[in-house]
Each structure stands twice: as C-alpha cells, then as structure tokens.
Design brief:
globular, 11 strands
Length: 127
C-alpha cells in the first residue's frame, strides 16, 4: 500500500512558477517509479514527468522539457515538480502517482502503468 498527497498548486500568471510536492507514505522501503500526471477539463489525463526510485533517471513529456524539473528526496519521502515558464495550457489538476509493478528499468509514461494515485492539486495559469 502506497499513499501519496500532493500540495503546492495555485493560481499564477503566465510566465510564472510553481513548485509541487508529493509526500509518499506506506510502502516506502520498496523501490518504485514515481510520476506526475495532469488532466485539464475536457481532456484526457496526460503524463508530465517520471523519476526512478534513486532519482538517477527521469522522463519528461515533450511539452514540458526545458520548463519543468522533477526531483525527489528519499530521506523526506517527497517528490517535487518545479514548474517554470508556465503557460495557460498548463492549467490542470496535477496528480502524483506510483508505479510499483513491472520492470523498473524504464520510467513508465502511461496512466495504466501506475497503480497508486494522489488526490491531485489544481494549477491555474492565467493569460
């Protein structure tokens, strides 16, 4: 069992920044992939970024490369998403998720590959 709780969402103007946090609890002694997803109204949930347990490997969606940075601090059981140069199209509910099954040799980027989810935090970027 893995529990995830996101925080850090809010309202920001285009070009601004936000930092999201995801506190992970439960089966924290196991090694698994963590990721960030987002879902805007009327759109499907999409992969944003993922990170290996050690933090040594990452995977980013093309639309956030160069703007967002995923990281984690295992000592604090926390994953982060630093979001810079935000655009109105970044507006969405952002959720963190854990991929605990299957191979950990790659960073999963599909919704169905993740089996634990947080409640989500709203990010709104005004134009």
């Amino acid at each position: 069992q893995v529990q995830l709780v996101e925080s850090g969402g809010g309202l920001v103007q285009a070009g601004g920044s936000l930092s999201l946090s995801c506190i992970v609890s439960g089966r924290t002694f196991s090694r698994y992939v963590l990721g960030w997803f987002r879902q805007a109204p009327g759109k499907e949930r999409e992969f944003v970024a993922g990170i290996s347990w050690s933090g040594g490997r990452t995977n980013y969606a093309d639309f956030v490369k160069g703007r967002f940075t995923i990281s984690k601090d295992n000592a604090k059981n926390t994953m982060y998403l630093q979001m810079n140069v935000l655009k109105p199209e970044d507006t969405a509910v952002y959720s963190c998720a854990a991929h605990t099954q299957g191979s950990s040799s790659y960073i999963a980027s599909n919704t169905y590959e993740y089996d634990y989810w947080g409640q989500g935090t709203q990010v709104t970027v005004s134009s």
